[in-house]
Design a protein that fits this description.
502 residues; Carb_kinase_FGGY_CS; six-stranded mixed β-sheet; ATP:glycerol 3-phosphotransferase; kinase; globular
Length: 502
């Protein structure tokens, strides 16, 4: 990296915000910008976003970051993105064929149920590492093709492009010259064969996705293309990394250190542990590709939870807290739980569009269990926050079934982790240290680290000096024992959300 070009600009295109950070030669954040994104729910269980809006916000924050530091200093761009969200666009015009169908959307639940009823799930999971669920991209891509006139024929003729959000952003950043995706995002589509690292012919046939409509798969740290044809971003800036946001956060926490399990607390949550084999007997979890750093492929054992921060937002709406100014709302969410000793037996299971890992039940619906006359707003808010910790503990419990799995610390990031009460409750529940990164741009930093590796031509181990510090929450083991009873009561409440599906 030359003295003149010492900045990496990293974009984190998430579900609710597009953020861009400028990272200097020491890995420090020297500028950051953010723009909110709208989510649309046109029908029950449907969740979508405008692909144009995602792009516009992403280009805007990247342009702001470049302008803040000076284009002459920018050595490379890096991208982390919301995963599983699927989008299609016409190759000639570059216009979307429909909305971006987000990872939360369950509109393909009937199709996924039919696959399970046909006995296809075992084969699909063996090939892709993923259970059958509407979370993943393949069924969404199928829906997109079926929703436009002659969609399948146009895709077969390579007139329609299908991709995850990384490929959509890359296409537009390079003026349609690069149609590629990174291997971590590809592994979330249910179309990638885990062992070969390429699109799986059987999965393409099963989901009805033409290979010619899909991007080229590349390592996460790779020269994906260069910027061109944009009014606000200079031509010629290399894009040197792309990676799914949860994978990027795991990379930024510890570069994949064994025993360090990562939990991102966002709209939903990804709980991911680095593993070094595709073989797993834990059917309730996904085996995925964490990243390919250009030298080594690292796998991940993962559980996806649709509603964690979203559960707290729902409760804030339902109890009137969301009408407060943002600063006051945050204060209330951080302080209310500690004003009561318990939830008075209330459990909130936020299956608002179904349950994710380890249950995988898209038909389940949310439940507030255990209401009594004495329950007040503080008890309900506390129940919403506790629901985050219980859901993460459910996934960690499933991970313990994986041969050789170890948990030395839970590495956490995301907005809700700023709540010290929540972090201590999580540590006490799990009985292990919780290590919090107080840098909100962790996913962007992870992508930036991968770009730095490519730019400097160094080994991943040489990136340790760039890693952010963590705040430690040590478990109270006496309280850990007491909380096991509450966790089991939570699991009983979860079962109540599922009774209609039996």
């Amino acid at each position: 990296m030359s003295a003149q070009k010492d900045i990496i600009v990293a974009l984190d295109e998430g579900t609710t915000n597009a953020k861009a950070v400028a990272l200097d030669s020491q890995g420090n954040v020297v500028a950051k910008f953010s723009q909110a994104l709208a989510i649309h729910t046109p029908r029950e269980g449907w969740v979508e976003q405008s692909g144009d809006a995602l792009l516009e916000a992403s280009l805007a924050v990247v342009a702001q970051a470049i302008a803040a530091v000076g284009a002459h200093r920018v050595a490379a761009l890096a991208i982390s993105n919301q995963r599983e969200t699927a989008i299609g666009w016409y190759r000639t015009s570059g216009r979307p064929i429909g909305p971006a169908i987000t990872w939360q959307c369950s509109r393909t639940a009937d199709f996924c149920r039919a696959l399970r009823e046909q006995g296809r799930e075992a084969h699909i999971k063996s090939a892709t590492g993923l259970p059958v669920a509407p979370l993943f991209s393949a069924s969404k891509m199928r829906w997109l093709l079926e929703s436009v006139p002659n969609g399948m024929a146009l895709a077969q003729q390579a007139e329609i492009c299908l991709g995850t959000i990384d490929s959509w952003l890359l296409w537009n950043l390079t003026h349609g010259q690069s149609f590629r995706c990174d291997i971590s995002n590809a592994s979330r589509t249910q179309l990638l064969n885990l062992n070969s690292g390429q699109w799986d012919s059987e999965m393409l046939a099963l989901f009805g996705i033409p290979r010619q409509a899909l991007p080229e798969i590349c390592p996460s740290s790779y020269p994906f293309g260069v910027t061109q044809g944009l009014a606000t971003i200079p031509d010629g800036i290399p894009i040197l990394a792309m990676i799914g946001d949860s994978h990027a956060a795991l990379f930024a926490h510890g570069l994949g250190t064994e025993g360090c399990v990562k939990a991102t607390y966002g709209t939903g949550s990804s709980v991911m542990a680095p593993v070094f084999t595709t073989q797993s007997a834990v059917n309730a979890l996904a085996t995925t590709i964490a990243w390919h750093d250009g030298d080594t492929l690292v796998y991940g054992l993962e559980g996806n939870i649709p509603h964690t921060g979203d559960a707290v937002a729902w409760m804030a709406d339902s109890t009137g807290l969301s009408e407060l100014p943002d600063a006051q709302l945050l204060h209330e969410l951080n302080t209310l739980p500690a004003t009561v000793d318990s939830t008075l037996g209330v459990y909130f299971v936020p299956a608002l569009t179904g349950l994710g890992a380890p249950w995988w039940d898209e038909d389940a619906r949310g439940l507030i269990h255990g209401l009594s006359r004495g329950v007040k707003r503080a008890h309900l808010v506390r129940a919403a926050l506790e629901s985050i910790t219980y859901q993460i503990a459910d996934v960690v419990s499933a991970m313990r079934q994986h041969k050789g799995f170890q948990l030395s610390a839970l590495m956490v990031d995301g907005g809700p982790t700023k709540n010290d009460w929540l972090m201590q409750y999580q540590a006490d529940l799990l009985g292990c240290p919780v290590m919090r990164s107080d840098i909100p741009e962790l996913s962007a930093i992870g992508a930036g680290l991968l770009a730095r590796k490519n730019l400097l031509g160094i080994a991943t181990s040489q990136l340790h000096d760039y890693l952010p510090d963590h705040v430690s929450f040590q478990p109270d083991m006496v309280r850990h024992g007491r909380l096991q009873k509450r966790w089991h009561e939570w699991q009983s409440a979860v079962e109540r959300t599922r009774w209609q599906t039996r």
